[in-house]
Design a protein that fits this description.
Strand order of the largest sheet: 5-9-8-7-6
Low-confidence stretches: none
Number of helices: 0
CATH superfamily of the largest domain: Efflux pump adaptor protein, beta barrel domain
Order of helices and strands: EEEEEEEEE
Largest sheet: 5 strands, antiparallel
Radius of gyration: 25 Å
CATH class of the largest domain: Mainly Beta
Helix content: under 10%
Number of domains: 2
Amino acid sequence: MPETALAHVRQGQGVRAASAAYPGREFRGKVATIGTRVDPVTRSIEIRARFDNRDGDLRPGMFLAARLVATVRAWAVLIPEEALIASGDKRFVFAVIEGKAAHTEVTIGEQVKGDVEILTGLAAGVSVVVGGVQKVRPGQAVKVLPPGGFKKGVKPGAKKNAGPKKKPAQKPAA
């Protein structure tokens, strides 16, 4: 497993695995040991798991594609990673409070697929500035757009369907 995932694995944690020898079947196990060294070339750590194999289907040397079972936190506050502003060892966001940008310190947790978990500093449901955070200043008025409301390459406030202007038809020469 990559060293960047080390903080997310614990001994006894659940593991689910699949084998090409048994399509559609899932094997369940637990993390037995976590390696003590990071491979200097691959930057990975060896993780060993134990699986219930009473039926003997799993054989020594078989390749299994394994996934760790993560803790699901339904209460987690997630924001897009690009909303974060780093300053030294601190992290900030521009929260939108009463239509104005508020420079707010936050503590981050897990980072998954472009989203960041906010542990402290931001309540669930509070909007944050995502695009152009380097141009925003505390107290500046901001407009909240619905999710997906800003399209890449289109300036905010631009008219919808404003394509290229058509040239007026020219009269044929007589």
